[in-house]
C-alpha cells in the first residue's frame, strides 16, 4: 500500500509542477532549455514506478491468497486431528465406563487403571468392532468361568480371549467344563456307534 501512495503522490507533484509556470523548478530548466527533457524523464520515471507498483501489488495479492489458502488448510487439518483425537478419547472413555460399571457392580470395588490397562483396551478396540465392544466388555465381567473368577475379570483375559468371548456372546452358548465333557462323551458315543455299524453291517 505504501508503494501505491508514493506513486499517486508523485503524479500529483508532476501535475502541479506543470501547472505552476512561475515555479522556481520550471524557470530554472526553461532558461537552459532542458524543461522538456526533465518533464519527459520525470514522466518516464513515474510511469515505471507506477508499473512496478502494479506488479508488486499483484504479487502481494498472490502472496496474500496463498497465505490465506495455507491458513485454511492448516486450520482444517488441525480440526480433523482434533476431532479424531476427541472421538478416540470418547470411545476409550465409553469402553472404560462400561467395564468399570460392571466391575464395581460385581466386585464392589473400582478396577485399577494405568497406562498398561489403557493399552489393553486400545488393543481390544483394534480387534473388536465398535458396535460389539461395549456389550462384549459387559458380557465378559458377568462370566462365571472359574479361570475368569480367579483372575477377577482382569482386562488381560478379556483381550486374550476376545474372539472366543464374542462368539460365545453372539451364539448365546455357555460351554462349561461339564458341558464340554458331556459333548465330548456324546461325540465318543457317536463315533463308537458308527464303528459298530460299520463292522457289523459294513455301512
Structural notes for this entry:
The protein has 2 domains: 2-85; 89-201, no CATH class. The chain starts with a helix and ends with a helix. The chain has helices at residues 2-19, 24-31, 35-107, 115-127, 130-141, 146-150, 155-160, 162-171, 177-201. The chain is an all-alpha fold and 203 residues long. Helix 1 packs antiparallel against helix 3 (35-107), helix 3 (35-107) packs parallel to helix 5 (130-141) and helix 5 packs across helix 8. It contains 9 helices and no strands. The longest helix is centred in the middle third of the chain and has 73 residues, at 35-107. The model has no long low-confidence stretch (mean pLDDT 76).
**What are the low-pLDDT stretches, counting only 5+ consecutive residues below 50?**
none
What value does the average pLDDT take?
Answer: 76
Global structural class: mainly alpha
Largest sheet: none
Number of helices: 9
Write the layout of secondary structure elements.
Elements lengths: L1 H18 L4 H8 L3 H73 L7 H13 L2 H12 L4 H5 L4 H6 L1 H10 L5 H25 L2
Helix pairs in contact: 1-3, 3-5, 5-8
What brief labels describe this structure?
single chain; 203 residues; 84% helix; elongated
Question: Would you kindly provide a brief summary of this structure?
Answer:
By secondary structure, this protein is mainly α. It contains 9 helices and no strands.
